[in-house]
Amino acid sequence: MANAASSSATILSTMKHVTTNKWDKAEARLQDIKNHVGESERKLACKPDMLDANQQHLEADVANLLTAVRKAYAGAPSIDVSTRAGIRAKGGHTRAFADAFEGLQNRLNTIERMLSNAKYSSGFSASAALSWRNELLAYLHQSQRRMEYTILFGKLTNEWADFRFGELSDTIASAKQVAGQSDAESEDEGAVSVGRKEMHEQRQVWESLVTNLRTSDKDHIVQFLDELFHSGPLHNKPSSSIEELADLRTTLLRKMRKSVFNSSKGAIPVTVATVKAAIKAILGADQLTSEKRRAMIDLGNREDVLSEIADILKIDLKLAAIERWSWGNSPIKAQMRKAINGKYRVYMDIELLDSILIQCVGQAISVTISNALEKAWSEAVAGVWKAKEDENRTAAIEAQIPNFTNQTAKNSTRELRNDIYKKIFFSPRLPTSMTDENSGVGRYDGDGSDNDEDQVQANLTDLVDGPPNVVNLKTDILRVCSAEMSVQKIVHGQFCLLQSDFEWFGPSLPHSTLTTIMEYFHFPKELVQFTEEFLDMHIQFQEDGKDGAVLTRKTGIPVSFQLTDGISELLLFVLDFAVNQRTGGSHLYRNHDDLWFWGQPSQCVAAWETICEFTQIMGLQLNKDKTAFAHAIDESNPRYKPASKEELARLPAGKVKWGFLLFDDKQWKWMSNKAAIEDHMDELRFQLQTRTSVMSHVQAYNAYMKNFLPNNFGPVIVGLGDDHPVMVLEALQHAQRHLYRSDGVESSAGNVADHVRKTIKERFEADYSEDQVPDCFLYMGVEYGGLGLANPAPAFAQFIQLPKNDINDDQKPLPPMQEALKRLNTAISESYRKESKQFIARLNSKRHRNRMGSKRTEGVEEEEDSEEQDDGNLPDLARSVNGVPQFMSLSTYMGTTEEQSAAMRDFYETLLTEPCADWSVSNRTWAAKMFDGELEDLFGGYIAEEEFLSLGLYRTLAEEKVRWSG
Question: Compositional bias of type Basic residues: which residue ranges (predicted)?
């Protein structure tokens, strides 16, 4: 740690020295501009506050100001300036940002030419000269203001660098202190840098889990797997007689085992491209310390070294060599890091070559698993996943809707549901090749703390056509869940939602469970041996120093390794498949070990009991705090069938939560979870208190607000309801007020802009001329010279429809959800009328044929009488009046729409999508649109002089990932 901190401090010191010269030049430039501005204002014959302005005096002022502006902008004659003439040149049309800019030199020449013409033309009045004078004065003040804020930006960056130096100095001093202490001294908490109580508590739990041997019963696991894959529904083989039957589950297992064995029996293929991909994956997983991270980046840019590494790995990655691999005698250094969601994780700081080798083995095993799992959806066995049909019910519907079975295959919501599950949710974390960079290693967090990703709203997964997006999996589950809720409310009148999670999944996973799974699916013994050796590592925490205790891992898997992530996905596939088979074709939706299931009560009971059985057999434990069940009912729906109390009693209790949302089963909707929001804002408040520089405060604030906070409210989609954007905006406002509350009291004025503005005013008030720092400086990006404060609100506000008072109520567009329901009801009603008419037409046609067949034999007549009687006794779905068959009721027809209605499928798809935005805006453009006028008036279109901006130092500071205190 000391070496890494010392290296970072050296880099910062170098960058700061380089930028000092730039700051000196900026200060000199500002002083020159101030002199020009002051001299020009003193020479004005007509002061700005004079009521009566003499035209000749004004023209003289314009001439003097032309000279002053040219001096103030010396060296930058090609600079663009904002001009009202630019707006007029566009014909008065609304323009995009920066459309009305022209070169300064051209603009000054134009004013000079017009001034010359004014001396010989009576068409020019004093107002024209007054306008030119004010424009030129604005150029002078804008030039001064830009330099002031350029220097302010530099001072804020310098303050951040000093803050970072302080952090690094503390780290170096702490590391040296720990290294120099004896065992007795190291017990004195006052002598070393210690973390918060939560960190020590979580470390104690972690150590108790990984250092104590936790085993699973191999025989029970194999028995569970045998029952799952060998006892299943029997299906006819294509082109075979009815006596030749095949168990699709057995076929699936055989195909998977064959795929695993064939893919992993040889050496792991290694090329330079493979090594590059491994390095990129390691960096993306954030395994390394800062010093090793920089070394790994440097290594990845050196082709000659990469070629040497590839040659070495070609030897080391043969099966015989893999089996002999070991960690050696030195313990692996470990460090606890705090994530943005408040959780602590233990990361292993591995030597670079070892980390590349382990990543290559992990990638190869994961690709093997990915290829094997593809067999689960091959044409020969894909039917094993599908919902089991009630044959009597299907026959009854077919009697009334002859093409019902074909419609089910082509248009049904069921078919769409299966397609989405297959494309998006089935093993998306597994790479498909040795150079695949889209796998999920190191990118999972059940609370959405991957703060380097963009807002999900800006990058929604295409759930219908794919491909999957691992980062969006949590959000995609919410989208599908919301669509299912609306469909099942219509079709069944009730909706059950089950949520669970494995407690301490990584640290508590028995090694015997992973190796048994590998052996069951026929991985070679060499790879099983390598996995065992990888897991049985010796660990020493960095903060304990060189004399700290060495721990031996006996249980659990380390975070952010493709090797264990891949094998874990194979283990959890077993759970996916078991739930599917036990529930009659329903799917378990997972974000790694976050489990979600929905459906009808009996399905949820079967799923829950399967999850519990799997957990017990595999040696795991469920997280009670994240286990919950909700049951929403609509008693007004004629298709609602109450579940028995005994059935519901078998399901867990608790409130279903997703991010900062809480499911309200009474209202059938997701509500903001204010308690969770306040807990996270309290944590952020603690973190911000340790960020004493303005820019470090902004960096930490942005890490929460840019992505973490908005992503945990879910995106704006039709399925979440028309009032979802308003609910999120109110919650964001509450978060701001709670975060910046004063003396424990929330205030409507409490927000980040006021806090940052106040801090800058207290520390740097003499460096700018305004009464307060303008919003455009606070919110516009660093590339413009601003601080780039994050504001998640516009991403949600763009979907709020503004009142349209200029049109009649009956012509106003409906909100998206209401519009989707209206289209669905209209389409189903029309479809019902059509199917009813066709049924009556078929019935009348059959009666006509019967009347025309009067000359048939008695035997034939008896046969026909029997057929007529069968048609009149269709089970459940057929009605009869005076013995005459009737088409099913609209309520009964609605109950079939999930299986055969194209309109219901379209409705389902609509629920997954975002509505049309009332105002299109992105994270990059909202500030430019909102503060365009202020930016032009105060700065002339851009905040800072780019040549004087200390962007190099800023980027050096900003490239370091935020490490949370504690």
Answer: 844-854
